[in-house]
């Protein structure tokens, strides 16, 4: 395992987990845990592994991209100590708990399929008749090349809520701790970005590792998605 603690020592992680384990509501736990990551730098490509390089379990808490942020938060949510955290990270990040590049969950909708005991896709129930379904060949670009070399394309039915209907149909039903994927209408992709829903009264925020800001930040959710195609919502169980 490659462990890069960043601002967190192992004992500090244990302390954070001691507090979070006392929060019985998953959303409250996710909000508390993700709050610790506010200000952590954004960095792409922090994981080790590719079609030509052996996969290594990486725990890099010093810098995250949008997807590794969710990896760490979901694994921390399920853990009460550091060893449990690493075990949960393997289960969250990899299918069947096998640390390998081909078993890594590369797509947001992989989570709903391969972590079904812990995460559920609630997009259709939130959007109701306003939700839309589309069939996609994930990982296959319009020109026929692959987004991720070494990963076979897969046909998947994707449900999303169009942005124009998000505020009217879903915002008041979103819960703190929901994982939100920004639906992509590009061929081969399910989402273009992911983050965490945090509610404060009537305000709904999107907590995410932002390329533009260069760090983990909170932004107004409605404003953020206003020019996006739609959203996919996964809910922790």
Short description:
With 237 residues, the chain is of the alpha+beta class. The protein has helices at residues 10-20, 26-35, 66-77, 82-93, 108-114, 123-127, 163-169, 221-225, and strands at 2-4, 48-50, 53-56, 58-60, 119-121, 132-138, 154-162, 179-183, 191-200, 203-210, 215-220, 230-236.
Spans of 5+ residues with little confidence (pLDDT < 50)? none
Number of helices: 8
The fold-level CATH name of the largest domain is: putative xylanase like fold
- CATH hierarchy: architecture of the largest domain: Roll
Which homologous superfamily in CATH is the superfamily of the largest domain? Answer: putative xylanase like domain
Structural class by SSE content: alpha+beta
Overall mean pLDDT:
95
Q: Span from first to last CA?
A: 28 Å
Roughly what percent helix?
25-40%
User: Strand share of the residues?
Assistant: 25-35%
Global geometry? globular
Biggest pleated sheet: 8 strands, antiparallel
């Amino acid at each position: 395992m490659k462990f890069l603690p960043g601002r967190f020592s192992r004992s500090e992680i244990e302390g954070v987990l001691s507090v979070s384990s006392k929060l019985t509501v998953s959303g409250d736990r996710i909000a508390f845990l993700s709050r610790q990551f506010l200000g952590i730098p954004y960095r792409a490509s922090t994981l080790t592994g590719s079609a030509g390089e052996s996969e290594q379990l990486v725990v890099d808490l010093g810098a995250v991209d949008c997807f590794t942020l969710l990896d760490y938060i979901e694994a921390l949510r399920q853990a009460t100590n550091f060893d449990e955290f690493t075990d949960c990270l393997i289960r969250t990040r990899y299918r069947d708990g096998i640390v390998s590049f081909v078993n890594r969950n590369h797509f947001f909708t992989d989570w709903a399929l391969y972590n079904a005991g812990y995460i559920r896709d609630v997009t259709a129930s939130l959007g109701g008749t306003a939700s839309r379904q589309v069939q996609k060949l994930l990982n296959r670009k319009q020109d026929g090349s692959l987004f991720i070399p070494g990963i076979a394309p897969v046909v998947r039915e994707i449900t999303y809520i169009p942005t124009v209907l998000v505020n009217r149909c879903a915002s008041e039903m979103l819960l703190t701790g929901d994982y939100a994927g920004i639906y992509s209408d590009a061929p081969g992709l399910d989402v273009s970005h992911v983050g965490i829903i945090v509610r404060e009264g009537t305000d709904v925020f999107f907590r995410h590792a932002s390329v533009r800001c260069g760090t983990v930040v909170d932004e107004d959710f409605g404003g953020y998605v206003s020019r996006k195609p739609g959203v996919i919502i996964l809910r922790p169980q």
